[in-house]
């Protein structure tokens, strides 16, 4: 017990659940919240995503990493309904999500944030928060006209929103337009707003992108606290220090496919991952420049024949 | 120069039926453009459908006045559905293109020769407003001071018109301060963010299109009854652009913006159109520069110039908050 006093219970649970999971692409998890099979998305001749099988462990923080153009954000968009795959299916909490509209995905408990933060600029911070609550009676047109029908619920929602604003240290900005917040504060607001939906799973698309380093630690703390609250987190990130710091499990994508899985330390030592990031020829010596030139020429030809 | 007439007609235009019709049209457009961010460039079609719905029901088919009102409202709702279903899933600018085309289609249908049996072609329809004026409680003209006077017909349409404006404003006020209105305004800011929070964006945009179309259609009734006639070319695209001028002038997404905007718009336009011919007559403006036939066109040139200056120096309009408008620049 003494050794574990500093480790929060959520971390222990996640570690325990992932202890015996093999470190290989498409590994089976003990209690997956999200299971995807054969998800393929093509843009013309380019296959952006081709994921055979993937499982996300419930209650853990899973990082989705990979070099630029690996298909991480596209995969995110597919899972949350913002884009439609050419083929494939996936289930969330046991219910199939293929072909489900994005707003229904959110109502089922899977909420996402965006790489380019989407603060609703000309709404106040508190209204941004209130908007996140689901099942609001006043959001139907006719009932909205009669305040008596929704004011009680509005008060509850506002209380919940205020609590979250305090937790995310945005309470001082409560009445300001969201558009007047700094980049980092917008990220915080977007995350807090997503929590208003009371999701089971939070999908964060590059939560650290463009965030002032002074805010990074607090943002990391907030992501960790989601796990302690029993939520599942899947996030896309480029910052490897952050990935190492907060994730229980890492999934690596390269050229649309899942190429490796495992705990942060094993994944970062995996030669396939290093290859994906630095290119298969990173050792360099075996390949002469003629070969590279031939490849470039072949690519250029391929580009022409596409036209 | 007869200043009392110039000032008289200008003051009248602050509250007369024409101003009311434009205010109602702009209240509807404000729901679309100001609150929801829908670029509807076919608002004139909603007014045209309502006006022709009333006129054709009564004048062509001989049915009672109130049925005509019902037909017009139904027509506005159907137009909103027809416009919305194919376009609201697409990017915002597609709606602009489709609505401007739809408004022209509606106008050209009204003036087409093959339909003139029912629509009266380019001459339009008359003799449908008796049912309305038979309810007129006023008899005789009313004069306010020595400058302003309204006859009984104008007074009746003004009374009904102002009641409609008041009801519309209450509607917009209640709707926009509700959680429904919050979703609507959030859609204006970013549709995808609203989707990600579990709201059915397409459904809300459709509701907004219908609400704004129906509010605008009330303006169509006022114009039709005021003139006791409908004519297809009243509902051209320039009509929609005047509405945009009014909405921006008053301040987009402000409850009273369209009414104040319409007042200022018509006061200035009427004033210019009254002053210029008088000034030409009196020799203050030389005829080599402008004669009386040019004066009307010059009024609209001033409107265009005014709109440009407004957008440069006061993009938030009369009621708007400059800070809020500038947030868009990021």
UniProtKB/TrEMBL annotation, chain A:
Protein name: Branched-chain amino acid transport system ATP-binding protein
Keyword ATP-binding listed: yes
Region (Disordered): 1-27
Gene3D superfamilies for this protein: P-loop containing nucleotide triphosphate hydrolases (3.40.50.300)
CDD domains: ABC_Mj1267_LivG_branched
Keywords: ATP-binding, Nucleotide-binding, Transport
Amino acid composition bias (Basic and acidic residues), ranges on this chain: 13-27
Ranges for domain ABC transporter: 34-280
Pfam families for the chain: ABC_tran, BCA_ABC_TP_C
Key word Hydrolase present: no
UniProt source species: Actinoplanes philippinensis
GO terms of molecular function: ATP binding; ATP hydrolysis activity
InterPro entries xref list: AAA+_ATPase (IPR003593), ABC_AA/LPS_Transport (IPR051120), ABC_transporter-like_ATP-bd (IPR003439), ABC_transporter-like_CS (IPR017871), BCA_ABC_TP_C (IPR032823), P-loop_NTPase (IPR027417)
GO CC terms: plasma membrane
Automatic annotation (TrEMBL), chain B:
Keyword Transmembrane part of the UniProt annotation: yes
InterPro entries in the record: ABC_transp_permease, LivM-like
Molecular function in Gene Ontology: branched-chain amino acid transmembrane transporter activity
Major place of residence: membrane
CC terms in the record's Gene Ontology section: plasma membrane
Transmembrane segments: 6-31, 38-59, 65-85, 155-176, 209-229, 241-257, 264-285, 297-313
Localisation: Cell membrane
Entry keyword set: Cell membrane, Membrane, Transmembrane, Transmembrane helix
Membrane topology: Multi-pass membrane protein
Protein name: Branched-chain amino acid transport system permease protein
Organism whose genome encodes this protein: Actinoplanes philippinensis
């Amino acid at each position: 017990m003494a050794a574990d006093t500093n480790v929060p219970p959520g971390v222990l649970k996640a570690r325990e659940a992932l202890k015996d999971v093999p470190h290989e692409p498409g590994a089976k998890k003990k209690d997956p919240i999200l299971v995807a099979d054969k998800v393929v998305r093509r843009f013309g001749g380019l296959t952006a995503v081709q994921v055979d099988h993937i499982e996300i462990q419930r209650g853990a923080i899973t990082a989705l990493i990979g070099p630029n153009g690996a298909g991480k954000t596209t995969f995110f968009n597919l899972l949350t309904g913002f884009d439609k795959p050419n083929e494939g299916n996936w289930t969330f909490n046991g219910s199939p999500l293929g072909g489900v509209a994005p707003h229904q995905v959110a109502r089922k408990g899977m909420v996402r944030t965006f790489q380019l933060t989407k603060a609703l600029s000309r709404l106040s911070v508190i209204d941004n928060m209130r908007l996140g609550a689901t099942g609001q009676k006043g959001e139907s047109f006719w009932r909205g006209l009669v305040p008596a029908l929704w004011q009680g619920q509005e008060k509850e929602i506002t209380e919940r929103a205020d609590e979250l604003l305090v937790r995310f240290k945005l309470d001082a900005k409560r009445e300001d337009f969201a558009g007047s917040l700094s980049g980092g504060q917008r990220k915080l607001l977007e995350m807090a707003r997503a929590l208003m939906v009371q999701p089971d799973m939070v999908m964060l698309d590059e939560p650290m992108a463009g965030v002032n380093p002074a805010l990074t630690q607090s943002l990391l703390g907030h992501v960790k606290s989601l796990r302690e609250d029993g939520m599942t987190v899947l996030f896309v990130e480029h910052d490897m220090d952050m990935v190492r710091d907060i994730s229980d499990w890492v999934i690596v994508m390269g050229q649309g496919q899942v190429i490796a899985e495992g705990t942060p330390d094993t994944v970062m030592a995996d030669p396939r991952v290093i290859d994906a990031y630095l290119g298969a020829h990173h050792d360099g010596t075996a390949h002469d420049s003629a070969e590279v030139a031939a490849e470039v020429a072949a690519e250029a030809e391929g580009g022409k024949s596409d036209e | 120069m007869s200043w009392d007439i110039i000032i008289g007609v200008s003051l009248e235009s602050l509250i007369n039926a024409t101003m009311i019709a434009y205010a109602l049209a702009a209240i509807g457009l404000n729901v679309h453009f100001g609150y929801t961010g829908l670029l509807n460039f076919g608002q004139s079609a909603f007014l045209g459908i309502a006006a022709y719905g009333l006129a054709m029901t009564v004048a062509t088919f001989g049915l009672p006045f109130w049925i005509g009102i019902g037909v017009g409202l139904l027509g506005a709702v159907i137009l909103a559905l027809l416009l919305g279903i194919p376009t609201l899933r697409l990017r915002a600018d597609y709606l602009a293109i489709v609505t401007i085309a739809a408004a022209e289609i509606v106008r050209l249908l009204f003036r087409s020769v093959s339909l003139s049996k029912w629509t009266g072609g380019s001459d339009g329809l008359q003799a449908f407003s008796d049912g309305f004026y038979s309810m007129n409680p006023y008899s005789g003209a009313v004069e306010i001071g020595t400058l302003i006077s309204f006859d009984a017909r104008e007074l009746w349409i003004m009374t009904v018109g102002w009641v409609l404006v008041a009801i519309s404003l209450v509607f917009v006020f209640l709707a926009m301060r509700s959680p429904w209105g919050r979703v609507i305004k959030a859609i204006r800011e970013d549709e995808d963010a609203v989707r990600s929070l579990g709201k059915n964006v397409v459904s809300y945009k459709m509701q907004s299109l219908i609400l704004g179309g129906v509010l605008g259609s009330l303006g169509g009734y006022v114009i039709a009854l005021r003139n006791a006639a409908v004519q297809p070319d009243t509902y051209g695209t320039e009509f929609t652009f005047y509405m945009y001028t009014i909405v921006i002038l008053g301040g987009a997404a402000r409850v009273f913006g369209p009414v104040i905007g319409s007042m200022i718009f018509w006061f200035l336009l009427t004033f210019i159109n009254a002053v210029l011919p008088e000034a030409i007559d009196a020799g203050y403006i030389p005829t080599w520069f402008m004669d009386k036939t040019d004066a009307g066109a010059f009024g609209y040139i001033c409107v265009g110039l005014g709109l440009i200056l407004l957008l440069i120096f006061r993009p938030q309009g009369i009621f708007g908050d400059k800070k809020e408008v500038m947030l868009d620049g990021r």
